[in-house]
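Q&A log
Question type: sequence-to-structure
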Amino acid sequence: MKYSIDVKVPSSQAWLDAVMGDFNEFLKDHADCERKASAMATSLIAKYPDREKIIPDMIETAIEELEHFQQVFEIMQQRGVPLNKEMKEDPYIKQLMPLTHGGTAESRFLSRMLLGSIVECRGCERFRMVSEAQENFELKKFYKMLWTSEAKHGNIFVELALHYFDEKTVYDRLNEMMEIEGEVVRNLSIRPALH
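Response status: OK
Response body:
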């Protein structure tokens, strides 16, 4: 069953052109994003150790994201592309983080879980675009694997939220956050980066 919802604003051809035009730079950003995604899943466990239902899935997600980082790193090594010396601030995440502030502790927990779904769903959409644009068979296959993995993760966050909140509360907030995410994407600078 699909729990997540589709992105409201599709990524542009201009974004894809920027990625394909400087794929090595994209790989550097992609590697950073996988490390951050693993850390985010781990941080949810640290912040919410009493929400026992999330812990097994967040452990699994953290491990999978770290494995994706390892796989991207291997591709980078084959191409002679170094990791970024410093992980750069992600303007997309920076603009979405305020959605997880304010309100009650319960509403912040819900928003954090749903933000996880939103970021994974955007990654799913963009990895699909990258996969379909690839001429290199191995990279096409790799990004297809990633897009299916991101779709699974996008579902997990919503499914877990539904353990703690009723369906209307979850989907009202998810739709509200997805609208804001669409505006963020519409106004992001075009660069060879995942976000």
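Response note: Helices lie at 13-21, 23-47, 55-79, 91-96, 105-133, 137-164, 167-187.
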